[in-house]
Amino acid sequence: MTATHTELVIRPITGRDELDLFCQIPYLLNDELADDLDSGHRRPEWLWMALRGDRLVARAAWWKMSDHTAPGVLDIFDIDDGCSGPERLDTGVRLLREAAAAVIPAGTTPPEYSRFVSADWRDHPAARRAVEDRMKAAERTGARLFVERLRLEWRPGTPIPARTGRLAFVPVSDHDELITLMTAVMDGTLDAHGRRDLTQMSPAQAAARHYQGELAQYRSPREWWQIARLPGGAPAGFVIPAHNGYNPIIAYIAVLPAYRGNGYIDELLAEGTRILAAQDVPRIRASTDLGNVPMAAAFRRAGWAQFGRQINMTWD
Ligand SMILES: CC(C)(COP(=O)(O)OP(=O)(O)OC[C@H]1O[C@@H](n2cnc3c(N)ncnc32)[C@H](O)[C@@H]1OP(=O)(O)O)[C@@H](O)C(=O)NCCC(=O)NCCS
User: Which fold does the domain 168-308 belong to in CATH?
Assistant: First the structure.
């Protein structure tokens, strides 16, 4: 805990009784914090505030997969947009440095910063300033913009194309089969996280890490996971519909390198959507990199709405 001559106090919340104080700054995730504390996705000591008196002037919070122990993402980092003056960013920088020093295990790379933004955030001066100020403050602690992603949503009523018969869908038999296919699709991937992983480890290691770190954590039925086979039986791709505890999602979808450029992605996306729509879901969510042009085009063709974007920043 730190108090300075400017009466700035930087500290974590004492417990859920301080959630109202922590939520003085509006953000999409505020409504999830209480449940996240209950479900083990968050810990009070990971929700940090910079306070002047009873006014919240900056805040930071980390989230994790419930089975994990270390924080997986810095998904809240805010500076009170009502404050003005040059010390605004300084406060955010101080808060982030102090909180990260307490929360991030020593000697480990900090998890990335993820910020949800509107689809047109650059077109509105106030929204743009808010996002860019957070990014500038994060940059002053060593973060760099890593990738901007599209957030996409399928809504009930949006037609799902019927099967064409070009591909047969069969459930994934076991995790080895899936990891083998996940390894193969790393070749030529346009996904920024995948490309970064390939500079640091083998495709097989990257696939195994992705599987363990994300897909294996989902509690939704494994029977939903589908492999698409060509008439001769060869796998052409796969789709992983899931529920991440917040929303039904297309967690992963890919076409094997040899079969790209045939529009198979449309059929995989339709199949994954059909499986989740059969559960009578209110929406299905997915995201893809702005730079993953064929994937973004497939979502567009299938009538998915682009309801926002996401900025990801990383520390080396
Ligand atoms: C994204 C992906 C699923 C697209 O599958 P697809 O069935 O080849 O898509 P399309 O048939 O619609 O391809 C459209 C065009 O993009 C090209 N293309 C597709 N994937 C490409 C890639 N990874 N690199 C370069 N070009 C690619 C196709 O060759 C085709 O080009 P053309 O119009 O000149 O023929 C596939 O590239 C893939 O599996 N990538 C790795 C995994 C991934 O990124 N998944 C999405 C995570 S959100």
Answer: Aminopeptidase (3.40.630)
